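Backbone Fold Data
Goal — fold tokens
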Amino acid sequence: MMKRRWFLISIIAVFMLTSFVGENGVLASKLNELKKEQKQNEIKKNDLKSDIQKKESAIKALETKIDDFLKQILSLNKEIEQTNANMNRVIDSINKTNDEIDALKESIADLEKKIEERDVVLRERVRAMQIKGSHVSYIDVLLGANSFADFIDRFSAVTTLMDADRDIMRKQQQDIDQLETEKALVEKKLAELEESKAKLEKLKASLEAQKKEKSRLIDQLEAEQEKLSQEKKDLEEEYHDTIEVEAELEKAVIAEQKRIAELARKEEERRRKAAAAAAAAKKPGTLPNVSSGFWTRPANGRVSSHFGWRVHPIFKTKRQHRGTDIANSIGTPVVSAADGVVSYAGQMGGYGNVIMVTHSSNGSIFTTVYGHLSKINVSVGQVVDKGTHIGAIGNSGNSTGPHLHFEVHVGNWTASGPSAVNPLRYVSF
């Protein structure tokens, strides 16, 4: 990058050193080369500026994506925290349910112990009874009475025992049913809690995976952002170097224009010493009449647009028209409006085919511009007289029909156009 910059500056320096040596045509062609290099440098600068803007847009787009992912990660973190809280609550409920089951198991053990104790009491009180399975033969107890009074006693005892037995068995069955019911409910609750825990663990794993993926994408985006930032930095450095080269080229162009202006002054001095006014060689019916004085009309035809603000016929926006348009058919001759030196001849953007002539009048420098030509008859560095046939009307560049676009600049021509003045100040149309 720096080598290219110094190479360009070296070329400019060579132009500057050799600008005072050689013939007029060779010397003036250097201005063309400098302007060409200036134009290429301007194109490069605009391209770099466009690339920098694209990099900035890409970096902003990545920043937006990163911010979006960070927001998603924050949301995932909140979901993970909520999931952890829910899991903790479920685990607490599971622990409490397990405690309830343990308590139930202890209750069942106590109940079984009570039933055994009840069985012992029954066996002691009804030794004579025969127990078959889970049923007691109270008939045998009654029939074993020795007397009616014994029978009554035995009957009373049997009745009491039967009532007690029924009460014990009823309580036993109630207790067992209640414990089994509670145990089933608790175990169902435990199963539901375990299922909820499993779902929460699965949800947490999914959230963690999403968070990991978002983090990975952020790492990729940040790496791409870093790469784009470095590329933007490199482009900015190259852009600054191009601006420096542009400044050097501008100095060289100004110096070359001054040199050509000096040639124009010398030509004026030579003409005065020779005491012979330059006269244009006319072609009957085609070239415009050459006026007396310093200036003459550059072409025959109808003035179709004057100097000043207007709505551009192509772009449809209000712009300053920096010259006077003369409409005529393609091929109509165009002559130099005054004595001078050709400082540019070739194609230039919206001008299409254009000629620029630098003039000197009483020590003042002027530049005339002849745009949209169909033909160029002169070359850079050529000395021309007022009325010299230099080209032909055309329709090249940004044009809606065949015409000559004619400008007058006080001093040297500039792209921004502040030097342009109304041609009517000097030329009669």
Observations:
- Residues 73 and 215 are 8 Å apart (CA to CA).
